[in-house]
Amino acid sequence: MNNNNVKSTSFGILLKSLIAPTFLLFFMVMVGAYAVYNLSSVSQTTRVITDDMVPNTGRATEVMRSIFNERLALYNFRASGAPDDARIFNTEQKETQRLLQEADVYFKNPQRRAMLQSLSQQHENFGRHFSQELVPVQTEMMALRERLLNELGPAARREIERLVETALVSGRLTEVRVAVAAQGNVLNASTQVGLFSITMDPAFQREAGLLIEDARFTIEDYADIAGLDTRALIAELVSTWSEYEEAFAQMIQLAERYQAILNDSILPKGTQLTDAAYGLQLDIFNHLEQEGARTQSQIQSSNVIMMLLVAIAAIIGSAIAYFITRSVVKPILAASHVLSDLVTSLRAKNCDLRQRLPVTTRDEVGVLARNINEFLATLQPVVNQFRESSDTLQSASSKLTKVALKTQEGTHQQKSETIEVATAMEEMESTVADIARSAAEAQVLSEQTDKDANEGKQVVNQMINSSQDLAAQLKEMADGIESLGSHTASIGQVLEVIKSISDQTNLLALNAAIEAARAGESGRGFAVVADEVRTLAKRTLDSTVQVQSFVDNVQKGTELVVLKMHKCKASSESTVEKVAAANEALNMIMTRVQTIKDMTTQIASAAEEQSLVSHEITRSVDRIRHIAEDSALSAEGSSQSALEMDRLGKELNQLVSQFKS
Fold first, then answer.
1. Which family is annotated (predicted)?
2. Which end of the chain is more exposed for a tag (fewer CB within 10 A), N or C?
3. Whether pLDDT at 1 is above 50
4. Which residues touch 163 (CB under 8 Å, ≥6 apart)?
């Protein structure tokens, strides 16, 4: 498939690809120049709006706001009539005048300047009417209001109160009733006059006039019935109320004049002033809207023209790009088909490296095709060499895999046996530790036994000494008790003699009694003595019998004690012999315990040494086990690497077999 028919061309892909962008760039420059021209025009219009109209709009708005503040101050002055509100109006008027003068400097449009001058003239007239006409009338009205509400009205009420007090003191109830009615009318009239002076409402004016007239009638009625002592007070009240009526009439005239000034001059001029300011503001807004509409129309027409230019440039550029792209893409597509066939055959594992790309041009596409052909030609011998190397690699990896598997089996067996040895050594180490611990415990126990035997020997020696002392004491007690028995026998003999003497004394006393009886009265005293002697002999005999009984019991007890003492003596002698035998046994136990103590000491030392040796052996076996585990892991890794190498060799062989060279 090698095609060497190369077309000669003088343009490369780079030059071809630059034609369309260059053309589009030319059109974009044209569009940009037109856009800059239109933007300059729009910028000029915008500058007029931002530098002239927008600031003028703000100034007109400030003038409008200041005029509204003036009118608000006017309304406040109408409501209160206070000098402070008049000063506030003058301040607002000066502020408006300042804003008008500032606007006169910045306004350039002749029509708006004329409107501004007219507005300034109207504003000046408005302020002059306020200062020269309205303020004097308002000031005079406030003075009358002050006189009515704070002087004449309170004076009339005080005079009526004096009349009421005088009538009450005099007890003239009719005068009191009429005076109280007059006082109520005066108070109501003063209230309505105050409301009228604040609101200037005709309804309050009419109501105040009627109440003033009613108060005058009531005062006249009171004057007709008043006593001589109140004539002077009545005269003062009539005079005060007449002045009150005159002042109220003047206030009505001033109020009518005040309303006339407001309705004919101030309010219309204020409305005209507001309308003129609004007209100036509206003119600026209309002009601003016209300029905005003109700018919007200019922007829209510019957008349409630029869109047409862009569309024309896009159409022409697309046509140029199509033809240039076709001349570049066609050989690329041809080369792409060949490369696609190579890729398809490679996926099918039947790649033919003997194919070549067609070379039809001398541009970059042709250079690419030639380079790919050279790459394929260079790749063919490399693939052949890969095939030979993969066969060799596969053979070597198979052998290496077998060796690695055998090594892995050996290391696994070594690891298993090492683990068993380590387990046995750990068990032996545990056993040796138990032996050492038991030997140590036996040594401690033997030492304690030796100590206990020594203490037992001392106790036995003490028992021997105590038993010998007890035997000697028992012997002495036995001798003493035997001596007591012999003495008791002697007491028995003495008692026999005393008993015999008692019997003889009793017989003698009986004979004496018989002889005394024979003697009669002369022997009565002797009979009494004989009877006493007989009684005494009887008591002696009874005591002797009792003592004899005691002595017999003592003799019997003494014999038993002597018998038991002999038994105790024999037992103590036997105990001494047994304690001596126990002493000999303890001596033998102490000798054997000392022997056991020496043997347990030797066993403990040997067990400790054996424990150290077994621990060292266990550590060595553990290190061997770790080495065996590492060897097993290394062998396993080598086996896996060998298997992986074998697999890669097979895959490489399969991949190389896909290429036909």
1. Belongs to the methyl-accepting chemotaxis (MCP) protein family.
2. N
3. no
4. 175, 179, 222, 226, 230, 233, 234, 237
Under DSSP, the state recorded for 10 is S
- The answer to whether 481 touches 565, Cβ cutoff 8 Å, is yes
**Among 181, 178, 208, which Cα is nearest to 193's?**
208
Task: Give pTM, 2 decimals.
Answer: 0.37
pLDDT in tens, 172-214: 788 788 878 888 888 888 888 878 877 777 888 888 888 888 8
Widest distance between CA atoms in the chain:
215
Partners of 659 in beta bridges: 351
**Structural contact between residues 166 and 230, judged by C-beta atoms closer than 8 angstroms:** yes
Query: How far is the C-alpha of 152 from the C-alpha of 55, rounded, in Å?
Result: 58
Residue 660 β-bridge partners? 352
The string of pLDDT tens digits covering residues 509-560 is 677 677 667 776 766 666 776 677 777 767 776 777 776 776 677 667 767 7
According to CATH, the topology of domain 15-312 is: Methane Monooxygenase Hydroxylase; Chain G, domain 1 (1.20.58)
Supply the CATH classification number for the domain 367-660.
1.10.287.950
How far out from the chain centre does Cα 565 lie? 97
Residue 222: alpha-carbon gap to chain centroid: 89
CA distance linking residue 389 with residue 377, whole number of Å: 20
Measured between alpha carbons, how far is 235 from 162 in angstroms, rounded to an integer?
13
Instruction: Give me the amino acid identity at 570.
Output: A
List the end-to-end C-alpha distance of the chain, in Å, as a whole number: 15
| Residue 259 near residue 196 (C-beta atoms within 8 A) | no
Q: How far apart are CA 576 and CA 472, in angstroms?
A: 12
Centroid of chain to Cα 266? 70
Rounded to an integer, the average pLDDT of 24-36 is 69
**SS3 call for 226:** coil
Of the candidates 176, 181, 158, the residue with the CA atom closest to the CA atom of residue 226: 176
Residue 308 exposed, middle or buried by CB count within 10 Å (0-12, 13-18, 19+): exposed
Of residues 641, 645, 655, the one with CA closest to residue 395: 645
323-326 long-range Cβ contacts below 8 angstroms, 24+ apart: 324/16, 324/17, 324/19, 324/20
Residues 4/289, Cβ–Cβ less than 8 Å: no
The answer to whether the CB of 642 falls within 8 A of the CB of 400 is: yes
The pLDDT-based confidence of 485 (bands split at 50, 70, 90) is low
Contact 147, 245 (CB under 8 A): no
- CATH 1.10.287.950 domain position(s) in the chain: 367-660
In the chain, CATH 1.20.58.920 sits at 15-312
Please, where are the H alpha helices in 348-363?
none
